[in-house]
Design a protein that fits this description.
Oligomer: single chain
Bound molecules: fe (ii) ion
Shape: globular
Structural class: mainly alpha
């Protein structure tokens, strides 16, 4: 993982711990590694910024680019890719949280906490 993603993971896990989830090992592991799937894409911060802007202002353009550019597609699918990367090494619940960390949390309090911690950094 790039150092910036490692630092973000530590910060997310730290926020979760400070919110009372310090004993929830599966959630803390998901916090540490939630963006591990991004490590499979080149391009780094440039792509991420472009994806964020296109997602907000031109989702149709983003979808067209995703179909043509493997690195953008990898970043777009990083949660699913991260779940695949960790499925043999992390608890199943951590893998689920990594896979779903950009999906609607619904009534899942732990997933919502992960998303709220992720949004801080
Ligand atoms: Fe993410």
């Amino acid at each position: 993982m790039p150092p910036a993603d490692q630092l973000e993971g530590v910060r997310v896990a730290g926020a979760l711990e400070s919110w009372g989830y310090g004993q929830d090992r599966a959630l803390l592991l998901a916090g540490l590694l939630h963006d591990v799937g991004k490590s499979r894409a080149a391009g780094g911060a440039r792509y991420r910024m472009a994806i964020t802007l296109m997602e907000a202002f031109s989702p149709g353009l983003l979808q067209r680019i995703i179909r043509r550019d493997g690195d953008v597609a990898t970043l777009w699918r990083h949660a699913e890719i991260g779940a695949e990367m960790t499925r043999h090494s992390l608890p199943a619940d951590s893998v689920r949280l990594i896979r779903d960390h950009h999906k609607d949390a619904g009534g899942d309090e732990r997933l919502r906490a992960l998303q709220e911690a992720d949004a801080l950094f």
